[in-house]
Amino acid sequence: MPDRIEVAIQPERPDPAGHALCEQVREDLGIAMAAARVVSVYTIDAALAPGELEQVRAELFTDPIIETSAVNHALAADFDYLVEVGFRPGVTDNVGKSSLEGIQDTLGRVFSGTERVYTSTQYALKGVTREEAETIAHNLLANGLIEQWRVCSREELVAQHDAALLPVPRVTEKSDPAVHTIDLRVDDGALLALSRDMMLALELGEMKAIQAYYAREDVVSMRRGAGLPDQPTDIELEILAQTWSEHCKHKIFAADVEYTDASGETRTIHGLFKNYVKATTDAVAQKVDWLVSVFHDNAGLIRFDEDYYFALKAETHNSPSALDPYGGAMTGIVGVNRDILGAGMGCRCIFNTDVFCFASPFYDEAIPDRLLHPRRVFRGVHSGVKDGGNESGIPTINGAIVFHERFLGKPLVFCGTGGLIPARIAGRPSEEKASMPGDRIVMTGGRIGKDGIHGATFSSEELHEGSPATAVQIGDPITQKKMADFLLEARDEGLFSCISDNGAGGLSSSIGEMAGKPGGAVVHLERAPLKYAGLAPWEIFLSEAQERMSLAVPASKLARFLALAALHEVEATDIGEFTDSGFLECHFEGRLIGRLHMEFLHEGVPKMVLPAKLAPVALAPEIIVEDTDLTADLKAVLGALNVCSKERFVRMYDHEVQGGSVLKPFQGEKNDGPGNAGVVRPVPGSSKGIAVACGICPKYSDLDAYAMMANAVDEGVRNLVAVGAAMGTIAGLDNFCWPDPVTSEKTPDGAHKMAQLVRCCEALKDTCIAYDIPLISGKDSMKNDYKIGGTKISIPPTVLFTAAAILEDVERVASMDVKAPGHLVYVLGATKNELGGSEYLALKGQIGCNVPQVDALAARRRYEALHRAIYAGLVASCHDCSDGGLGAALAETAFAGGFGLDVDLAPIALASNVATLFSESASRFVATVAPVHQQAFEAALAGTGCTLVGRVVESPVLTLARSGAVLAHAPLADLKRAWSAPLHW
Amino acid sequence: MAVRALVLTGFGINCDHETADAFTRAGAVAERVHLNHLVAAPERFEAFHILAIPGGFSFGDDVASGRILANRLRYKLGGPLQAFIASGKLAIGICNGFQVMVKLGMLPYFDGAFSQEVTLAGNDSNRYEDRWVHLAVNAASPCVWTRGLEAIETPVRHGEGKFIPRDAATLARLEAQGQVVVRYATADRAPAGGVYPINPNGAIGDIAGICDPSGRLFGLMPHPEAYLDRTNHPQWTRKALPAEGSGLRLFRNAVAYARERLV
């Protein structure tokens, strides 16, 4: 029998975790619970002598100052109901793993391999009914996909006689290790049924292409010669499905699009990626000289300075986050970290950015089946990203949290990472990967389990009844941190020739891709280390178990590579060899079980042809009531979810580890004003820096997808310019998240969604070329829909535009807070009657029609001038003007710095005061300037739409007037309270 | 001869680069050394004058922050570590490093033996937070690291930083021996009085860091290595600040002491 050690804070001391749980239960579930205390339970599935058990209880598991503990005895005493939550079998248990290491250290012996420690948590709840305890367990403490739980009363616990409440989550389920052959010589209906039943997510055309491959004479004769069955083995079909998944192959962006534009003309676009994304970069590449490696690697690389390259990448992890917000989001962030670690010869991660899209946490209607309440999604996603980033020692320096009702169907979780790599490593250019035939294939990091099997194909489908729980993984940041420390040392010693991340598709994907250059690979799957026995060979190859990288290691360096891994206590295993055979080959226990032509694998997927035609949008002009006093509206706008402070959550991210922090997320006299862009100095002693910001505007999608994209690019850029970045130094990333745009029975409006995608791509190209922004990497997630029963929810088409700039001198950047009374207040850029999609209209229950349009040429002149002014030290503060319009930007500027503003907007006012204050026209800023710099500043900005509107005043009051008539007037404290209050839980 | 600082790495330690940078800026030769390198060759300790256990998440803070690394040091390097201390050398533990020193019993090190006398518990808020704090330095402390300093500004970045002594007698002894080195305070060095967020975690006595009776071993929750340069300060764009961050002065003190006494 496993032994159980229970640990709790001594009963006479307060228990902060229990206290926080009470608060959360009250906030989220409306249940007034009297008290709660937490007991940590360690179930030790290993043969320990009684003395050993006592030793680890005392020396490892118990803090002698504040904790109490017991062996095989229930500690919880003062409660009405006890909830115990533990993992299901096979779910990553990081604390359990560390505990086992701790036990081995304590006892000075090494276990044989089957010993485990399983952790679970007991919540002793007081002042609740059984029904309430069940609700708390189900809606807050446990997620049935990955966890098991039990609720028991005091009497039930006594009757338990100290026996464990939950079964030990040993993995006992074994897969059939046999390799099966699947006969594709069937009709179309049966092919589709196969695709569905095996969760291949392949369309009929794709299934038929595979069918045709196996009918090819050369294939048949090759297979007979190799001793393989004529028809595909399960592993071959799984490899093809994974490699050809939308997630990996970006088939929609590669498709031929039959696009009918607004004028009714139809033309064919041969690939959106090629014609818009790549075309943008190709065009800008003529103008900038700092591109190093774009599109083909795990992340884009640009030049930072003579000695270093900078890498940037963002990913989404939407579907896993919908099912298990904590685990899904954590694997999102540690996953994109591995993209950076796998870029070039391996970059060091220097910052993270995190952008989330949720439905309102105050949503109070029924939640559709299998979806979680947005507040739970919010908390879980935030915690996962927080733990993933903090534990990895990577500062989170920028991000956003965006709200829209249709993100109820699927939350969007964008995780981005920047990295740095020396331009030359071991005497070679660090951007060049060079796996050679004969190099060993080495897998390093974590072990393989059933977690994440079919993740790539799963994310290529909508969320449905049968969405697999195995698609969920939990990250293990410490295993990854150890691996990253090890790999960067191995890199500097020149111990490998190629590196790639094991993300979606697992080994199948990483080895399949890395084998492209040498021209083939042979893999021996029985050599791969497993978390537990009983995986089928195809599961080993496809598993998306986390924290793994694949490398090509020259045979002569293998011994040194493995020795360095051992020193770092990181697992590394030689599982095969790269070849030039032209085949990807899989063996299991000495037997060939799969062999595919590399060419067919990578090039065999048929091109889709997709119709695209915009459906007319019903526009309803806004109805504005012009109140004489807009103070209440200003407070309401400041408190809108898309405007209000996110400090409570952002402050839980470590934003300054690694020591290079220059501009933090919060600025001003009380360190709580909302910054525009994050700035770091990645190389100590160098004046150079990196600024990163983001733009995301899903609220415009329904009205005008072109404007949505143009505004997103503009928002990202102006946030960079606001801190002082120069045009011509900015690189961009596009992360598309779309509802399914492929017309089908379940998506009758696919052509419209596809046309929105075309419009969006046009805007991306037009705006980026106008701003000289090359797109250095990007990603798309094209199936963000929920469909169960009669309910379908599709997200608004969304693009996250991440923008980063190399700064010449970090000491010259501007922050957003007012600095001193007497400074002059300027509005830069034209305010137009563009309330469509604005926060103001949303508060009034409208969407309107006049969406902000980006005048990129005019904006560019302003951005160039503003950069020069900031660089010359003429600007005391500069703040981006976006969600909430001028009203919000002026208020934020003022309360961040602690001084009032006396502003008269007459020189820029529109007919409507409401539009003047709350229109969200693009490309605008609020800047303050010391009087001594007035002339120079105005000269610098001349002709770019620069208007003096007022002064900074000592008195902490914001006054916004028009020709002397006050439009809004409020103490800064009131405005700040309105802005801070909504998300303070 | 140069002052040599050993900056421990591995197993989730993650502030090792900037901690090494702090020692380098202070004039020492800093070397990042993986724990397993030391375990394999403990004699390497002898070549160093200063040991730093940086911040991070050793072993993921699993079981309790710092616990598993503390145990590993105790079981695998206990002897060499005590010899290092006995030879009059210096050590600092920052954040997770402080948690390690406390749980190992390397602080407060009352009687020259590893014994845990205090702990660092979960913050009262139950939240991990990154926020800047003011520290008031105890002028009566023998601490080598804070000599000549009255106040320090640094960020705290932790979820388990609430200082709790075993009992009132332990606290009294710490105070009597000047072992309480830094306390959370207001900008004008008035005691935080437990008020959040001036005292960010609810630490008893507003205690942010302690030293051993000799003042050579020092641990604190806030991160002095995060304030080496003016531009690290959250308000550098609105205040006239010295080019060098106040965090760097701690490292300068240690290097100066080592140069005088140990080299």
Structure classification of chain B: alpha/beta
Domains of chain B (count) = 1
Helical fraction of chain A equals 25-40%
Low-confidence stretches of chain B: none
Briefly note the CATH topology name of the domain at 181-270 and 433-605 in chain A: Phosphoribosyl-aminoimidazole Synthetase, Chain A, domain 2
State the major sheet of chain A. 7 strands, mixed
User: Which percent band covers the strand fraction of chain A?
Assistant: 15-25%
Average pLDDT across residues of chain B?
A: 97
Helix-strand string of chain B: EHEHEHEHEEEEHEEEH
Question: What is the CATH T-level topology of chain B?
Answer: Rossmann fold
Average pLDDT of chain A, rounded to a whole number, is: 94
- Kindly, what is the distance between the CA atoms of the first and last residues of chain B, rounded to a whole number of angstroms? 6 Å
Label the CATH architecture of chain B.
Answer: 3-Layer(aba) Sandwich
Overview of this structure, please?
The complex is a heterodimer of chains A (985) and B (263). Among the domains of chain A are: 3-159, Phosphoribosylformylglycinamidine synthase subunit PurS (Mth169, Chain: A, 2-Layer Sandwich), CATH 3.30.1280.10; 181-270 and 433-605, Phosphoribosyl-aminoimidazole Synthetase, Chain A, domain 2; 617-627 and 635-656 and 815-985, Phosphoribosyl-aminoimidazole Synthetase, Chain A, domain 2 (Alpha-Beta Complex), CATH 3.90.650. Chain A starts with a strand and ends in a 5-residue tail after the last helix. In chain A, 33% of the residues lie in helices and 25% in strands. The longest helix of chain A is centred in the last third of the chain and has 22 residues, at 750-771. In chain A, strands 18-20-17-21-19-22-23 form a 7-stranded mixed sheet. Chain A is an alpha+beta fold. Chain A is globular. In chain A, helix 22 runs parallel beside helix 31 (972-980) and helix 24 runs parallel beside helix 27. Chain B is of the alpha/beta class and 263 residues long. Chain B has one domain (4-261): Rossmann fold, CATH 3.40.50.880. Chain B has helices at residues 16-25, 35-40, 67-86, 96-104, 168-176, 247-261, and strands spanning 4-9, 29-34, 50-53, 90-94, 118-121, 129-137, 151-158, 162-165, 180-185, 207-211, 217-220. The longest helix of chain B has 20 residues, at 67-86. At the A-B interface, helix 1, helix 2, helix 3, helix 15 and helix 17 of A face helix 1, helix 2, helix 3, strand 5 and strand 6 of B.
